[in-house]
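Holo model, adenosine-5'-diphosphate. Inputs:
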Amino acid sequence: PVNRRKEVQESRLKLPIIGEEQIIMETINENPVVVICGETGSGKTTQVPQFLYEAGYAHGKGIIGVTEPRRVAAISMSKRVAMEMNLSERVVSYQIRYEGNVTDETKIKFMTDGVLLKEIQKDFLLTRYNVIIIDEAHERSMYTDILIGLLSRIVPFRHKRGNPLKLVIMSATLRVEDFTENNRLFRDTPPVLKIDSRQFPVTIHFNRRTPQDSYLHEAYRKICKIHRMLPEGGILVFVTGQQEVHTLCRKLKKTFPINKTESSTQEKRKESRRKLDKNRERAVLPNINLDNYSVAPVDEEADEEALDSDLDLEENEQEEDIDCKDVESSDAGSCTEPLYMLPLYSLLPSHKQARVFEDVPSGYRLCVVSTNVSETSLTIPNIKYVVDTGKVKTKFYDKVTGVSTFKITWISQAAANQRAGRAGRVGPGHCYRLYSSAVFNEFEKFSPAEITRRPVDDLVLQMKDMNIDKVVNFPYPTAPDVEQIEAAERLLVSLGALSAPEKIQRFRDLKKGFVHKITTLGHAMACFPVSPRYAKMLALGQQHDLLPYVVAIVSALSVQEIFVENFKPSSEENEKEEFTKKLEHMKAVKKLWAGTGHSLLLGDLMVLLKTVGACEYEGCTPKFCQKYGVRMKAMKEVRKLRAQLTNAVNSVIPNANICIDPKMKPPTDLQAKLLRQIVLAGLGDHVASRYPDVIPETSDGSEKKMKNAYQCPDLEEPVFIHPTSVLYKEKPHFVVYQNIVETSKLYMKGLVAIEPE
Ligand code: ADP
Ligand code: MG
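Output:
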């Protein structure tokens, strides 16, 4: 029996899913696989695990497992459910790659999808679980897709063994045909339960015109208007990245500051609120469309006009430079009511993320500026206005070469509707789309599945490790291209993880491509929770006491954005500024370990190694991180990953016996040279050579300047050393790179210089 507190009971009763408990549980009891669809916020993630728990699905040995594509969600949802059930976090726990609080007592386990995939490798039948809930299946993350494919086979197996496993797939959209209508996946179509959304109507306001580049400015303007003119209610703004979140927060804080000297301003504020209320009465909102929030826009022209003329914000204010003075001198500038600004993005420290769930101080209006983490995985309470830039930053990969680019693109129609839906949780809401309805109609209907957009080498290795040899035949909800799979197999063969193709037995096999089998090295590599290239480095690190160094380097390479400033591809101006800042950090870090003299030998990887070493030596303190421009959250992840990899190495490599030495000495010259060879073994196909400064062009005899350009095997275009690299000035003839990113040019990052022998 669960002993919930009274407030929890009450708030649960308001969730639409509560009324469906009986039907949900009956359907799950009677069917091996069930799909549940319900609007974000309807209570799927927090309530379904509780229903299962109360129905006895965690009695005895077996437990309830819930997968999330995002770490943020795994952590915050486990905490939320523990709180609602009045149970300790030892019972309702989470596990993500780097950390977790799972114990022997754990009954409900939230985890990232990657974590469950690793567990399947060790225990294919998932015997520890009675139920697996695959949450956020609509996001179509690669691991979620693969898990559904695997579970489609595991569930019947478990049934045959008389120890049935239930599978519950949960989605925030109704688009689930890829799972249900795909008879390679489930022979019997699983039942689909639709949770009545009890979603309040949201009125959609399209912009008449779509601003070209200045969507951030447009968002700022819109928020100012909403805050000055419209009745109370939280605002949620969707922008594309961390940098934009901060920029916008800063500007809005300046415009609507929180005044520290409470008492003296209280009168003023009351006065201004009186004025404000009068103003607000004037801004009559358009009729609310009671049928549906998602399709028909309400007379967009009229809306825009109503808001624009009422607010009377100078039309000719400078587009580029948003100066708060401009706004304060404007007509409605008498508004001194502060905005309670909260940023939200996935790299934000967890305790700061949690603030969006806390109460808003009275007298303030909540304004959350978020990346698309709050599109479906987190339901932020009390939002009435959504401002949607229609943009998202997505990582694009060349499916074959792996070159990655961050691009800002339009979202899909489905995503736009999800965003709009965030405004209708507490009452009728409004969504301001900063683009025209014509542009909206051009959006893709749905975002494509992740698996079709990225290299699949890690996935293929993991599948081969599970003895799925014909990766092409796997029951994918959406299959990757054969080209992608072939590129992955080629890489894995070159790393020695797969063996050369077996003799082709039948014509049919020929058509389906070669069958590579996993090698002993491949099995060892699959044990490490890092990309196959880095796994290879770990598997090679046995000689000359190199393992602790390899572990440190691989940990640092596997965690993103170790250094504070992140790269902003959208504006040239900022790019330069970021570069210089980052160079400063590099200099500082270089100085820290100056005199050890190995920089040339290991390039940027030495900087990483030094950073990890110094951070451990001096303690991973805020002071240290600030001084060297190191991101604390990243360093904490590196430390956890280092511990995890150290354990993995000890269990995979006999007699490794390594530990984490907080006073790790810099490597000797010999060690640094050997480390470089190991790095080269993992990144052997990532070698670039410098072009001669001037190359005579053969076709028309003209000369083409290729100053500082490099050539690498898979790419026709020249690549360049990223300015944050310690080898930027050095410009060695040959370099090994970690990855290539495309911004204004193709840039190589994570460089090590090599000399041809
Ligand atoms: P779904 O999974 O269907 O999107 P959830 O189960 O995540 O819905 O959320 C149900 C409700 O619980 C939402 O109204 C949300 O605001 C609330 N909620 C979820 N997490 C928290 C939290 N950490 N603090 C406060 N409220 C929360
Ligand atoms: Mg959810």
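The chain is about 40% helix and 15% strand. Residues 281-334, 566-576 have pLDDT under 50 and may be disordered.
Archived with the compound record.
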